[in-house]
Predict the structure of Phenylacetate-coenzyme A ligase.
Amino acid sequence: MTSRAVTWLRMMQPAGFYSTPSYAQRLAEVAREEGVDPREFGIRVMFFSGEPGGSIPGIRDSIAETFGARVVDCGTMAEVTPWMHGAGSADTDGMLLWQDIVYTEVCDPESFRRVPYGSQGTPVYTTLERTSQPMIRLFSGDLTHWVMEDNPCGRTYPRLPQGIYGRIDDMFQIRGENVYPSEIAAVLTELAGYGGEHRIVVSREGVMDELAVQVEADTATESAGAPAMERFSETAAAALNRVLGLRVAIEVVSPGTFERTDFKAKRVIDDRDLYRTLNRRAGSGTDG
């Protein structure tokens, strides 16, 4: 499907493009495999939704540079369509909340009370114009933080400066620290030598949770040999430690190790559930 998209994009030269950020990254990878520079598509504006990335600088800037296009982050829920009521503009990054279409509050996910501007919470949506199946304070389960400040484009809406950067159920804790998969993706995307895919492995050693990242090197780094692979590993570990405040074990693997997908990327493997199951069985003295 992606190879066919490369053919059609070269032929049709669309001005706009809409997908998830991870699909755009996959599209660029396939295009290069076929000897096509993604800039040849002539895309001027790329709209993204469906997963974090469009407002995360490392991912947003990498895609913009790859395609030579302006990246606009968008967001909503299927239950409040047909309006994509949160989006950036030509001059403003992040996502502006069009409050006169769908009234959005950012709320504490436990109390459902609105949090002050500058705080993190989950978006809660109320449709104002839809008369068929209206939604009143619909809980999204996403994670973001919002601000109310002057916007470069002049609009006076609240804004999500980093867009939607995760789901409540995507976040995991390592030794008391909250970790979001999108943070890890943003760090790796900015590293020279990154091969475009990775896996996050959460496990347990004794009583301590451990975080490991298996990351593909690009072809040039692998071709440069073991010293280059080791340098890339050290660079990735240091960058993730700086952002996350955690020790991260890095395993560098060859390009193409991980399966690519045309759909939303799933990169987290949590082995702690297996550990807990085995521990319970050992404690009860049963095998099943």
Observations:
- The chain has three domains: 1-75, 93-166, 172-284.
